[in-house]
Design goal:
By secondary structure, the protein is an alpha/beta fold. The protein contains 7 helices and 9 strands, in the order E-E-E-H-E-E-H-H-H-E-H-E-H-E-E-H.
Length: 262
Amino acid sequence: MTHPSSPPPVIQMDRVTRRFGTQVLAVDNMTLDIKEGEFVSFLGPSGCGKSTALKMIAGLLPVSAGTIRIAKSEDRSEQELAFVFQEPTLMPWATVFDNVFLPLRLAGVKRADAEPRVMAILAEVGLTKFVASYPRTLSGGMKMRVSIARAMVTRPRILLMDEPFAALDEMTRSKLNNDVVRLAKENGLTVIFVTHSVFEAVYLSSRIVIMAARPGRVAADLAMETPWPREESWRTSPEFSAQAQRVSDVLKGTLHVDNLDH
């Protein structure tokens, strides 16, 4: 009896290398498969190529060698990928609505046609009451919610996030962690999330890819043992502490690469 083959990965990186000029080898021979619906965190020290790898997946940076393949979805007519940067990069002269509407406007969607979709995603991120507000009146966490809504309004199936919560206070960061997990689950997203935080990676991820620096490469690929997604209360459990310690121990094994710089 034959069994149907499993679907191909949504993202395939095959021996991907990225050089900047002739001197800097930022990412070297990175091979990685990511399946549909996974929440994968790229974790590692500064300068290990996490953001560079993410931008190559997004097509924002060309690869120097190797290939990246994004599996196309037959039932989606809109863009496959959306990217959330570390800074919200909002237009200061535009309202929250117009900031979220921007990618649809650029795609030729009329404002009246886009309004239900913009309002729906603003409701999902808890910003319905701030539709007419300007970025200068928003907190850092609210600005990031607008940035996430702007990415989600295009109805992507792959969400790429480059340290989006690094500059936020711990309480805001924790709340946005929960929001991203909820959005990923409810919308069936595949997520790649770049972070420096072991605790954030362990809480968010179904899988953690630890990268070593000089040059950037995959040092470890860890499946999280606890089913995803998790409840907020899991953050204070012995199991969470044990998994964070396990990931931290693996991460520490990559840090000797940078010792000459410290």
